[in-house]
Amino acid sequence: MESYLYSSTFAYSGIHGGTTWDSATADPILLPALSTRDFALISSNSAMSRLDKTLAYMATPIHLEHLDICTESDPGAFQNCGRCGKCGRFLLIAEAEGTIGTYAEIFDIARFRASRWKNVRQLTKLVHHRKYNPNDRDHLVYLRDKGADLPLSARAAGRLSAAWSRLR
Ligand SMILES: [Zn+2]
43 and 8 in contact (C-beta within 8 Å)? Predict the structure, then answer.
């Protein structure tokens, strides 16, 4: 039997089969149902949060050439654009860990720095957005606890944008 290990988006605490804006909340439920006798779809590492997985990877960053977390269809000269939500979230953590230089070959760090304020705003927005994502909350709390530079103006703009999302 062949298998495909699909990296889970959410830890078990975020898994449910109810109404959702992200089908990943049901990965451990749906993937076995989509499997066949010959091909198993497996949600891997659902016991870990996205932040736990990020920190575990950063402790031993291997196979950088295969680290592709970017959501941009055209990330530019690098395999990871450095400014989309996923790149931004990852690099904010790397920056807080003091390891951002490790990723200079595969992320556009200059683009990250140019869009850092927007990434903080976006992360704050998603934490308070009606489409709540526990991964974003975990990351923002971690960054705050690490004493990361989270500009007040970016956090305020994120909160306002999230409040607007709740009015619609
Ligand atoms: Zn990206």
Answer: yes
pTM comes to 0.87
Residue 80 and residue 77: Cα distance in Å, rounded? 8
- Classify the phi-psi angles of 76: left when phi > 0, otherwise alpha if psi is within -120 to 50, otherwise beta: left
78 Cα–ligand 1 center, Å: 9
Distance from Cα 71 to the centre of ligand 1, integer Å = 5
Residue identified by tokens 């720095």 is 113
Q: What is the pLDDT of residues 56-96, one digit of tens each?
A: 999 999 999 999 999 998 888 899 999 999 999 999 999 99
Measured CA angle at 164 (ends 134, 152), to 5 deg:
70
Extract the tokens encoding 10: 């959410």
> What is the average pLDDT across 40-45?
92
